[in-house]
Specification:
The protein is α/β, with parallel strands linked by helices. Helix content is about 45%, strand content about 15%. The protein binds nicotinamide-adenine-dinucleotide and uridine-5'-diphosphate-xylopyranose (UDX). Nicotinamide-adenine-dinucleotide (NAD) binds next to helix 5. Belongs to the UDP-glucose/GDP-mannose dehydrogenase family.
Amino acid sequence: MVDVKSICCIGAGYVGGPTCAVIAYKCHNIKVTIVDLNQARIDAWNSDKLPIYEPGLEEVVFDRRGKNLFFTTDVDAAIEEADLIFVSVNTPTKKTGMGAGMAADLAYIEGATRRIAEVATRSKIVVEKSTVPCRTAESMRTILEANSTGSIHFDILSNPEFLAEGTAIKDLLNPDRVLIGALQTPEGISAQKSLAAVYQNWVPEDRVITTNLWSSELSKLAANALLAQRISSINALSAICEATGADVDEVAYACGRDSRLGSKFLKASVGFGGSCFQKDILNLVYLSQQLNLPEVADYWQQVVIMNEYQKKRFVRKIISTLFNTITNKRIAVLGFAFKKDTGDTRESAAITLIKDFIDENAHVAIYDPKVEHEQIYMDLAEPGVVDNRKQLEKRISICADAYEACKGADAVVIVTEWDEFKSDQLDYQRIYDNMHKPAFLFDGRLLLDAAQIRAIGFKVHIIGKNELAGTA
Ligand code: NAD
Ligand code: UDX
């Protein structure tokens, strides 16, 4: 078993950065070097303003940076020095070619793997941290073995990451489990023990799960598919609630009290976003298709179909409520991130909604507490939304706070569940006073106290709730 003293992490993103910063924080005797090809990102990691917003991240990074935690673009030197290398690069959905729109693009994984093979002059443990299709480790091993010289040996481990954005540091400091998959050979098991020993500096032994390599790879896709499936299930029920007068929060609570079901991840919403759920389910769908399991593929695909339906259903409700037209109306969108406590906008429901509002010729006023303004322009200027920046600037305003966004609005739409949008945090009377009447409010996050908001005078629609609920 190797006593790991030096770790390199390839990929300084939302996963590589926080994950390896926490390892440095908890293991002062291990030198951790996080590398990336993106100079701007590395510069930001070395500055006072980190490239990602995550509660608790600054404390961890500022505590260890320059001591046993380093950020650099010198990929080769870090590979050469490391006993263990995490590969934590992006694995986005392929945009073109075979499997486009479904399969994971493994070009970054392959690029990083080839680099390790070219640079390493001694044996290494190579760890898949990225989320990958089942059996990717086999391709990595083939590349490493074919490109390395005689005496060097590589062990490949799968150690998928289960952190959620917004709670990443909390999740990393106190994980439900750490999963480490390895080939069940003496070398594989020994490498598995080496990585387990790193985590056991702060994670209780019984939370470190060891499995075979393929179970570990598949468990990551499976966990995300199961979580997303719960959200699509409650969102499907939210449509029934709106049509019947049942209340989706009450249904979720009543179901969640069954200990077999559990209460988490049953919050109805305007649809799940984030860089993982859709990508990983599509990955599973593609894998099922490749394995000639069409019924299995269709089953998982339905989770994504329901998510798209939920977003479109919400938009249709907004347009029909606003007398079937939002042309030249001001729609205030509160929240642009895919969830609270992050500045990440990848696959955010806000993007789909705002695109639809723009298509209907509305003017959209956007406020989010953490998302950079330039990021909003980039997301909305994607081809198919509004290609031209000047045109886009005429159609949207990015505001400094919620009051500015809502001023003169015909409707307010809550898309992200930021605490500051709650009924007791924002002055909804002030918002109402400054809006066109009738003043409509659409809550896509079940954030508001409907009775309180209605008492002000708002016409309110909350996802999964029917205005006539409670009446005969
Ligand atoms: P990201 O895009 O934020 O970061 C990936 C980084 O890797 C980028 O900065 C990129 O420049 C860098 N990179 C790519 N190829 C490189 C190379 N050859 N050498 C050096 N750097 C290279 O992505 P992320 O959100 O951190 O996700 C990384 C992986 O983790 C993905 O597979 C994702 O599915 C998985 N994951 C993400 C989350 C999440 O919450 N974001 C959670 C669990 C798992
Ligand atoms: C997810 C997984 O939770 C995490 O384990 C994995 O490592 C990466 O993918 P993340 O996407 O960061 O994490 O956030 P998560 O909290 O899972 O939320 C994803 C989306 O689902 C968000 O848009 C969130 O608002 C939405 N959601 C979540 C709901 O709509 N309802 C819920 O009950 C929970």
